[in-house]
Amino acid sequence: MAARTVSLSLQQKMFVTLLAITAVLVLLSWFILHRTVAPAFEELELSAAHTNLVRVQRAIHEDLDQLSSVVGDWAPWDDAYAFVQGRYPGFVKSNLDRPTLANLDLDLLVIYDLGRNMLWGQVIRDGVLSDPGALGVFEPGTPVLDRLLSHDTLDSRVEGLLGTALGPMLISSQPIITSSKEGPIAGTMIMAQFFDEERLQAISARTEVAVDWFAAGGASPLEPALQAGIAAAGPESVRYVAGEETVDAYSALNDLAGEPLMILRASTPTDTSALGARAVKGALLSLSVAGVVVALVMWWLLRRIIARPLQHLANHITGIRRSGDLTVRLNDSRRDEIGALAGEFDGLARDLHDARRQLLEQSFKAGKADTAAEVLHNIRNAMTPLINGLDRVSRSFRSAGSLRVRQAIDELGNPECPPERRTKLLEYLASAFGHLQAASEDAQENVDVASRQAHQVEAILTDQERFANVAPVMENLHLDEVVEEAALVLPERDEGRVRLNLQRELGRYRVRAHRVGLSQVLGNLILNAYEAIQRTDSTNGSIEVLADLEQQDDRAMVRVTVRDSGCGFTNDICQRIFQRGFTSKQPSEFAGLGLHWCANSLAAMGGRIRAESTGPGSGASFHVLLPAA
Amino acid sequence: MNMTEHEQGIRILIADDDDTILDCYRKAFGDQEQTDYMKALDSLEAELFEAVEASAAAPRFSVTACSQGREAIDLAARAADEGRPFDVVILDVRMPPGIDGVEAGTQIRKLDPKVEIVFVTGFSDIPRDELERRVPPPLKLHYFNKPLSFMRLAEDVAGMVRQTAA
Question: Are A388 and B38 a contacting pair at CB < 8 A?
Answer without folding.
Answer: no
